[in-house]
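Example S7 (structure tokens).
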């Protein structure tokens, strides 16, 4: 009887309780999800002009793109010039952030000026995105 009991004790001693490990993994997962900053992309590829004064984009910003065909794009969908002011106004209600416009170097300057005007009328600071000169 004693021999059997010692075998059972040895088997029980080999069991590892991993429930605290699982709890810790979930806590870390939640921490990383909450603290991650998601970078928004405009959804289209534009050929930006180069500038010597180019700098990094701010992480929390409203990114608009103007394609060479004159389309105004936000988040991968075309919003048009008429959609800029309502979009910027709505996004600025949640948090104060700048509007950064990525313009294709072949885009019309007139469309760029209208997008800048609409953004400023919505109450935003406006910056232009450019590639850094080498």
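Recovered sequence:
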């Amino acid at each position: 009887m004693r021999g059997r009991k010692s075998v059972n004790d040895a088997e029980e001693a080999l069991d590892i309780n991993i429930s605290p490990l699982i709890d810790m993994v979930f806590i870390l997962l939640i921490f990383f999800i909450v603290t991650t900053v998601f970078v928004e992309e405009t959804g289209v590829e534009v050929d930006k002009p180069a500038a010597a004064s180019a700098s990094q984009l701010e992480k929390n910003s409203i990114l608009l793109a103007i394609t060479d065909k004159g389309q105004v794009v936000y988040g991968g969908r075309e919003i048009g010039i008429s959609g800029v002011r309502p979009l910027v106004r709505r996004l600025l209600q949640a948090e104060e952030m700048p509007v950064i416009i990525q313009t294709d170097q072949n885009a019309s300057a007139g469309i760029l000026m209208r997008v800048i005007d609409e953004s400023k009328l919505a109450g935003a600071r406006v910056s232009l995105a450019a590639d850094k000169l080498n």
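Notes on this example. The longest strand covers residues 62-66.
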